[in-house]
Amino acid sequence: MAASSNDSTIPNLSYLTQIAKGELMQILDKHRGMKDLIIEPNLIKAVGKIAGLNEVKEHGVHKIFPFESFVKTDSVSDQRMYLFRPSLAYIRAIVEHIQYDKEQDIKRQYHLVAVPQMHYLFVAEIEHQGIFADVTVDEFKLDLLVVDDDLMTGDNPLLFRVFFRKGNFRFKVGLAFLVHYTDCFRPYPACLWRRPLRQIGLRYDRGAVIAESASARNRSEFGHLFLIDRSVDLVTPLLSQLIYEGLLDETMGIRSGTVEVGKKVTGLDDPIKLSVSSKDPLFSEIRDRHITVLFGSLRSKAVELNATKNMKDNFSVAEMREFVGKNLGRAVSQSRSLTLHIGICESIFKDYQLDYNHMLLETEHKFLQGREFRQCLELTEDYINQQLQWQHAVRLLCLASLTNTSIPTKDYNSLVMQYLHSYGYPNLPLFRDLKDLGLLVDSIDQPQGLANFRKCSTKLNALPDDPATVDLKNPTDMSFVFSGVYSPISVKLIENVLVHQGFSNVKEKHLDKYLPEGLFSETRGDPAKTPKVVLVYFLGGCTFSEVAALRFLGRIRGYRIVIATTAIVTNVNFLQSIVGSRT
């Protein structure tokens, strides 16, 4: 499918899934015979999205076990294959399994499949444990998983800490795919990234299978490419999300386009798996709705569905036959989906109305607007002293620092000391990591090259003058995703470039001075003649609020936008990826 200069159709991304599927099947077929497959739990849904577990079994898999629930005595096949994201914990667990088999005098072949690649440190650990001769090592380069028509994710939330804190570039994060695309697409007029990432990106292997296939099939579908690392906008992932899809991810967790609805909503012991993608017409309509107008949308759908049910009471035999043949299944599916979404919304809204959540939200918005800073610090102090959820305490501290450039040293020292008293001194390294990442700094020991939130938000008009005038039901401004208080800087930056068809306005406003380590931009060809299809890639993760803002931007500006990211993050798992197990 080639795109003409005025074609704004979303490119068909399904071939990426087919490539991933072919590579997975090739790995399974490489080791002939029946084998047991032990999968990291977070990868089970991804594998199901790519190929389906039944199809995997057709390629020599006897049984499939989640890694955490696997018992060493469960496996009966002569071969065992581990599919996992490399970590020291998983490597040591595998070593324990193999050593157990040796003690029991069980002879078996072991195959380690790392996603997306195996790091040499883990290979060294395997050698150190004395099992290198007992295993084979393969790599399943699942850089990007297509989870919706316009959304791809690497599902790798750990990258932010590994990449930005430790400077470890062992994850390719799909850059081979994207860097090759920049060479084979039609001339593109926009590219944003930090200068260090430019060198890193160009070092990646340009001959990846995905990139080669992309070169052959999608030579001219994208007209614009934006590479944005997370440090350009560290504020947005720390905020409470207020659109439905973001809240759904925060409360229940969306994995590979699926959410498990538990007993709290359904009343059933076993969770119900609910697909949350554009394939569900109801979800597609409500996913980007603000929480305060969501029930109105669901009520309208319920009335519409009830009207359809009432109509069938007056059908003739022929009309009833047609209804049953064409519409009954869809009506039943819509009714089930509507019931689940109403139950989910009720659960979310109960939490949304809690007093401490209102306090959190109000404090966040005051930080964003630069109002009552001293009072907000006192509220943050009260939250810490009440020993409420640690992630919210930390993100309030980070928001205070980011929106104000830093926290006065006296206040910083006091807040850190109170946090350690409330949550324990083992958390002391947390503040070193937050400072190194530029998330939480004091006014004296302030690192160079951090983004200036106040300057960027002002120059990009990211903070509406009067949030009360923003229509949340029929929005005309992307700030609706945060109740009219704030538009994500990452998306406003993209909007600025698209509206002005280049970087002239960005440079006129001297925005590059207020972004971390400057701004790299490149323009090729005539922007006016390129397809109005945009590819945006976030390095370090993005939120569903940013996805909703990008979809809104595409609608009002006449662009079709495809989003790729290393991970979909929430404020909680974003901080958890930094902190690890020290809480």
Key traits:
12 strands; 11% strand; five-stranded mixed beta sheet; disordered N terminus; 48% helix; alpha/beta
Q: Describe the strand arrangement of the main beta sheet, using strand numbers.
A: 2-1-3-4-5
Compute the CA-based radius of gyration.
25 Å
Query: How many DSSP E strands?
Result: 12
Largest sheet: 5 strands, parallel
Please state the average pLDDT score: 81
Overall 3D shape: globular
Helix run count:
25
The amount of helix comes to 40-55%
Mind explaining what this structure looks like?
By secondary structure, the protein is an alpha/beta fold. Helices cover about 50% and strands about 10% of the residues. The protein has 25 helices and twelve strands. The protein has helices at about 15-30, 40-50, 55, 90-105, 120-130, 160-165, 175-185, 195-200, 210-215, 245-250, 265, 280-285, 290-310, 315-325, 330-350, 355-370, 375-385, 390-405, 410-425, 430-435, 455-460, 490-500, 505-510, 545-555, 570-580, and strands at about 35-40, 60-65, 80-85, 110-115, 135-140, 145-150, 150-155, 225-230, 260, 270-275, 535-540, 560-565. β6 (about 145-150) and β7 form a beta hairpin. α13 runs antiparallel to α15 and α22 (about 490-500) runs parallel beside α24 (about 545-555). The radius of gyration is 25 Å and the shape is globular. The chain starts with 13 loop residues before the first helix and ends with a helix. The model is unreliable at about 1-5, about 180-185 and about 200-220 (pLDDT under 50).
